[in-house]
Amino acid sequence: MTKKELRIKYKALRSVLSPEQVAQKSLAIANILLQLPIWDKAYFHLFLPVAGQNEVDTECILHLLSGKDKEIVVSKSDFKTLKMTHFLVTDNTKFRNNTYNIPEPVAGLEVPTKKIEVVFVPLLAFDRHGQRVGYGKGFYDAFLSECASGTTAIGLSFFEADEPISDLFEGDVPLDYCVTPEGIYQFKT
Question: In 3D, which of 188, 185, 179 has the Cα closest to residue 64?
Fold first, then answer.
């Protein structure tokens, strides 16, 4: 399937999830993350869900990371340059929704991309080869391509892998893992 077809399919599937289903599936994903070999790392990049999009609620993951004394990093997106700037989350971090309703830090201590060791990646769909479909702006592909070579990219999805994505681009960066409420897909060894 093409990325456009997958976007349409998975936006529709997500739109019918109840708030209870989103909460239950998000908690299951957070619990399964504990099985991944990532907990020796220090800097974790986390996305914050967009209200009304039925994205994975990362609040449980935020609490998990905080409880393990990890450095939590979130981003601010520049829709003119399609680049993200990364900020350390502290007790004083204040968030504001941007024009696309994405919660972002107002200000804070900037974290260099190369310092981030684990990236939790939002997505609409993924295939069995670790390729993903996002919203189509390329923010995460650009971000992941700038990360250090040992950085682990972990997709979070309410749904299982779909058939191979037929219209990949040279700049598409595959995932290392994808975690669903049912388990873990591993793509790179």
Answer: 179
Q: Phi and psi at residue 114, in whole multiples of 5°?
A: -65, -15
Bridge pairing between strands 43-45 and 95-97: unpaired
Q: How far is CA 171 from CA 134, 137, 143, 152, 158, in A?
A: 13, 12, 11, 17, 25
pLDDT tens digits for range 14-27? 999 999 999 999 99
**Looking at this protein, which amino acid is placed at residue 87?**
F
Say whether 139 sits in a helix, a strand or coil.
Answer: helix
Mark 94-132 as b/e (b = at least 16 C-beta within 10 Å).
eeeeeeeebebbeebeebebebbbbbbbbbbbbbeebbb
**Per-residue pLDDT at 107 exceeds 90:** no
> Mean pLDDT of all residues in the chain?
94
Nearest CA to 126 out of 109, 111, 140 is that of 140
How far is residue 104 from each of residues 45, 52, 79, 85, 176, measured CA to CA in Å?
13, 16, 13, 10, 25
